[in-house]
Amino acid sequence: MVYFNYKFFSLIIVFAFITHKTNGQNENSTWIFGQNKWFFDSVQSNGFIDTTFGSNYIIYGTASISNKNDGTLLFYSNGITIFDKNGNIMQNGNQLFGTPSNGSILEEFYTTAGLCGGNKTQQPVIIVPNPNDGNLYYVISTVNTTYMNYCTQGFPDTFYNLGLRYAIVDISLNNGLGVVVSKNNILQLPNGSKGLTYTLNADGTSYWIITRDGSQFKAYKIDSNGVQTNPIISTFTNYGSNSFIKISPDGKYLFNNYTLFDFNNATGIISNPNNILNNNDPDNPYRDASRGPSSVEFSPNSNILYFTSVEALLCNDCLYGVGGISMYNILTEELIGYTSSTGKYDFPLEFNASNLQLSENGKIYLIFNNQNSNQNSPNLIDVDFGYYTSGNYQSYNWGVIDNPNIWDSNNHPITTTITPSLSRKNGYMFPQLIPQISPCIDNLVISNNVLSGQVDTQSARLTIEALNIINDGSSAAYDAGISVTLKPGFHSQTGSDFRSFIEGCTNNAEEKTIVSNLHKNKITEPEFLKIYPNPSKNILYVESKEFINQWELYDTFGNLNLKNNLNHFDLKKTILDISNLPKGVYYLRTILKNSDVIIKTVIKN
Q1: Which of 419-423, 537-541, 590-594 has the lowest average pLDDT?
Q2: Cα–Cα distances in Å, from 76 out to 32, 184, 364, 506?
Q3: Which of 254, 187, 265 is nearest to 217 (CA)?
Q4: Which of 52, 278, 370, 506 has a CA positioned 20 to 30 A from the CA of residue 486?
Q5: CATH 2.60.40.3080 region(s) of the chain?
């Protein structure tokens, strides 16, 4: 392990994502929402090309899917109807919840949704590729909402609960425009389905579909055999009702109703709830008026949670007021965003409601709207996405968190705003996207300076070259598999803390261990050094094929927590007692008698 420790250095760096189009990584390249079509392109100054799309104004939630090779749009859906790449209704793509009979609740729902602009369920639809057939896609939809006071003005205040259903699209049919070959397949009966999201299975090919049904989380598996209708159920009592569910990019965490859970993406089991507010006070200032965060997103490295705390989003008969964006650090369990002494949000939002979405370029985008009581009809809610200027409609600016991997408690995380083109309306939210594990970059060049108060970690599979400035009061940690090179222009100012490691990330499902000595770096099989059980609460057993000379246990900040010198003993097995350490991620550096150094990740739970 190569380990630099400059106490006068800073510890962070901007995570550089590569966004050039490469085969198999572009399913999320095109976003359809409101009247907008975004095509992500790293050449553009904003990171995407923004155009007006179609005649359908989708006010509420959508999902879109792009060609995995070139990123062009394949189709999209609002959970009620499926549209082809040209914005037309796909063949057999309407009425996904079945054909209604005259005077039925289903007919009333279709009519109301058409009048109001779509499916107002908070997470209404996802699109899941068939793991075994590149032409087939599952469109999973749910309805659990009411349109009261928004746009009905005469329709009944009906609560629509249609359960969870799915359709199947064959994109190879109809000259590449696609055909819905099956629909209205009931996955979950209408008895309380709330929230809808999904993530990759640990096998890297199949998927987990997660929804809530009262006190139960239900995880449905989609694999080469199709949709498995018997879910894995995880039950939690005395649990809140907020529906918005988000899973971290690495598939290890699930967040719902201010509670962070562990998610086992191999088994589908959800466990270990941790309320990040440390209480269930409904008047906690971090809470939305609907008793849950209005929108949530993880950083690409799955360590930072961003959520908006506003007084209402898609909430009926609520009061409206200012709000803000808050952050939670999973590793340190630090929560920031509201100061009790001032009674104000630390990072206020320009408008009182927003939606967040992580993009393929590693940035998080925000879309805003204002919700206010109608002065003429107090029982109605006025929602606007912009304003008129000289007769033209101007949507509110989009916000951008450019460096979401950076933990910065001093500065507003929204670092950029983008002005939409005239005469194009936004909607409530961005589309739900296909989950993809953030790629491990082979070679990383770091040029962005690290500002005071910022903290960041950077990883590459092979090499890192740093030519940036680490400013006073900041921290940075760089980790590569072979080398970290400080190039001309790199400078770590007095008062900063900079550290580098030789371990490296990996794109493989199995961990690869970096072994190095004074003359070489090589990759060896994980069996060369075994650590078990891992994760562990108390005892770790370490077994090696070579005699162990010494071991050292570091935390993620490079602090030495435990150490043992065994050079007087010919031991191939040793025991570590980690019971007194805080839970978190650690690095075990094992030095063998043949001078090899093996570094492995250890998790204390």
Answers
A1: 590-594
A2: 7, 17, 21, 32
A3: 254
A4: 506
A5: 509-605
